[in-house]
TrEMBL record:
Keywords for the protein's UniProt record, in alphabetical order: DNA-binding, Transcription, Transcription regulation
PROSITE patterns documented for this protein: HTH_TETR_2
Identification of the protein by name: TetR/AcrR family transcriptional regulator
GO molecular function, one term: transcription cis-regulatory region binding
Entry keyword annotation includes DNA repair: no
Record feature DNA-binding region, as residue ranges: 25-44
Upper lineage: Bacteria, Thermotogati, Thermotogota, Thermotogae, Thermotogales
Domain HTH tetR-type: 2-62
């Protein structure tokens, strides 16, 4: 891969994390990357395609970080705790990537009148949410997660709560405890 291409991607990632997709121009990305604007278009035919590459890389890195942590864990309670801690670690240690996801999640999930690239972005995010939902389903099958919990809704709540949590460690620890008790607590009839 070209080092110019990687510089463009790094510059785009930083710019999108600071001001979001709509707040960034290709000219700004070119200046940050130290390249001429036509070179960006050589690698990426549009800002949407450039953002798609940044988005996909951010989600891939998030997935690698959190799911690698739990892949060899067989005991579900430890698995879900490791998942939550890995997610919190990602949010706190990889702030630029977390901000890219957080700033544009609502736009990606909004399906009103957006083109093919945005539909692919949404499908990619939905794939990520499905992996989180599968983890919750695993707990339901093991009778450790409340069977009344909708896995897709829980996955959305967990990811939004953790991704938006750029606060202190004690607040994140409280959010982790809240999520665990919500998943594993039983509701009385």
């Amino acid at each position: 891969m070209s080092s110019a291409r990687e510089r463009i991607l790094e510059a785009a990632k930083a710019a999108f994390s600071e001001r979001g997709f709509d707040g960034v121009s290709m000219e700004e990305i070119a200046q940050r990357a130290g390249v001429r604007k036509p070179l960006i278009y050589y690698y990426f035919p549009s800002k949407e395609v450039l953002f798609e590459e940044v988005w996909n890389r951010a989600l891939e890195e998030l997935e690698n970080h959190i799911f690698k942590e739990v892949e060899n864990e067989n005991y579900y309670v430890r698995k879900i705790k490791r998942f939550l801690r890995a997610y919190i670690d990602f949010v706190t240690s990889r702030k630029v990537l977390s901000k890219v996801i957080e700033k544009e999640r609502a736009s990606v999930l909004d399906e009103s009148g957006q083109g093919d690239v945005w539909k692919r972005l949404k499908r990619r995010y939905d794939d990520f949410l499905n992996r989180v939902a599968q983890l919750i389903e695993e707990g339901k099958k093991n009778e450790l997660v409340n069977p009344e919990i909708d896995s897709q809704t829980a996955a959305k709540l967990i990811t939004e709560a953790l991704a938006a949590s750029t606060t202190s460690g004690s607040v994140l620890k409280s959010i982790e405890s809240f999520i665990l008790s919500g998943l594993m607590g039983r509701t009385e009839p």
